[in-house]
From TrEMBL:
Signal peptide: none
Top-level taxonomic group: Bacteria
Record protein name field: Sporulation protein YabP
InterPro entries linked to this entry: Spore_YabP, Spore_YabP/YqfC, YabP_sf
Length: 99
């Protein structure tokens, strides 16, 4: 069997999990992209939508792009998903957020 005979399959969407240990270490799976981050806020694109993590002294501890795993350490105050009606509205929201 050569390369061209292989069956083309749709990639299965990765699972998305959040694991928070003592508000000090957050492990996230199903991450597509890290859009932005600083010591108070992370913006991640996950398979379930955009996720905002807010806290104090936040640091990127581990980033595995191939597996979609991100670990963040610091004091976690808030985690929230940004759900907008359409992609244009989401772009408008993020452009206002990062001006």
């Amino acid at each position: 069997m050569n390369y061209y005979d292989k069956e083309v399959r749709n990639p299965v969407e990765k699972e998305h999990h959040l694991k928070l240990n003592n508000r000090k270490l957050l492990e996230i799976t199903g991450v597509k992209e890290v859009d932005s981050f600083d010591n108070e806020e992370f913006l991640l694109e996950t398979v379930m939508g955009y996720l905002i993590i807010r806290g104090q002294n936040l640091q990127l501890k581990n980033l595995d792009v191939a597996e979609g795993i991100v670990s963040i350490k610091g004091k976690i105050y808030e985690m929230s998903y940004v759900d907008e009606g359409g992609q244009e509205k989401a772009k408008g929201f993020f452009s206002k957020l990062f001006k």
